[in-house]
């Protein structure tokens, strides 16, 4: 990539191709004025006020990155034969600090003067609509949205449970982050009239926040109810065993409404835990962890469906009203989560064939 793709007398990369590296043409961000993005395997990175181009990668046991600056005609290649992010970050920072004096910083464009009314036209809630991994798309919709808001004549973006990040206007719809030497974000309107917040690396569409709010209430509420079943089990299981060993007749005679949803929750947790420290490549391989996940999601769906029946049967059993109401809510949460995960094709998912 150095010397504009020329090695000795040989032009390895033609001038026309070199000029197209990291300059996509077809994306909405590119068509709306963002100059640099990911194209032909090359993308931009803003470091210390300069623009570097290149690409990085990671697989189990290996990390890599290469960057070059065409103006200074220097670059580097970083290869690491272990999957240690901390060491990699330290090496990366050391290289960048050593090369920074050799690269001229790009003077960022001055902030454009936009009125509060102009900034407010971009305000609202935006959802990600182009997930990098489809398997995690439901998580991005749940917690990956951004709120765009104005405060003291400044436009900000704020992620879920995150701090506000300012946007500096470059023109009427182009913005940059502090430290970025050029416009890197854009607000645009799609042909069908939807407001979009995009860069060459992400794509968000404005939507009504109440939809996401209901989504979060239902999902997080179901998760809290499901987790409460384990905390509740720490109470009722030893109490029931004590009463049984002491021949106390004042004990629950209908344990199914407690046991079945608990088994559903434990099944799902059993399937998720082995995957918690797996890499993406291990996700896509047939391993004991992926096999357990496949079976566990099916067990979760089965126990959740059965829990609906056991909670219904509780109305015909000598059960305390509080216990019955809790059983109905818990079984509803489990069955609802089954439908939710089933909609996203997580139930019975064979990760090795995904």
Model description:
The structure is a single chain. By secondary structure, this protein is α+β, with helices and mostly antiparallel strands. It folds into 3 domains: 2-102, no CATH class; 116-207, Lipocalin (Beta Barrel); 223-353, Up-down Bundle (de novo design (two linked rop proteins)), CATH 1.20.1440. It is 40% helix and 21% strand. It contains 10 helices and 14 strands. The protein has an 8-stranded antiparallel β-barrel with strand order 7-8-9-10-11-12-13-14. Helix 6 packs across helix 10 (321-343) and helix 7 runs parallel beside helix 10 (321-343). The radius of gyration is 27 Å and the shape is elongated.
The figure for the number of domains is 3
Question: Which secondary-structure class do the elements indicate?
Answer: alpha+beta
CATH domain class of the largest domain: Mainly Alpha
Tell me, briefly, the overall form. elongated
Order of helices and strands: EEHHEEEEHHEHEEEEEEEHHHHH
Low-confidence stretches: none
- Helicity level: 40-55%
Strand content: 15-25%
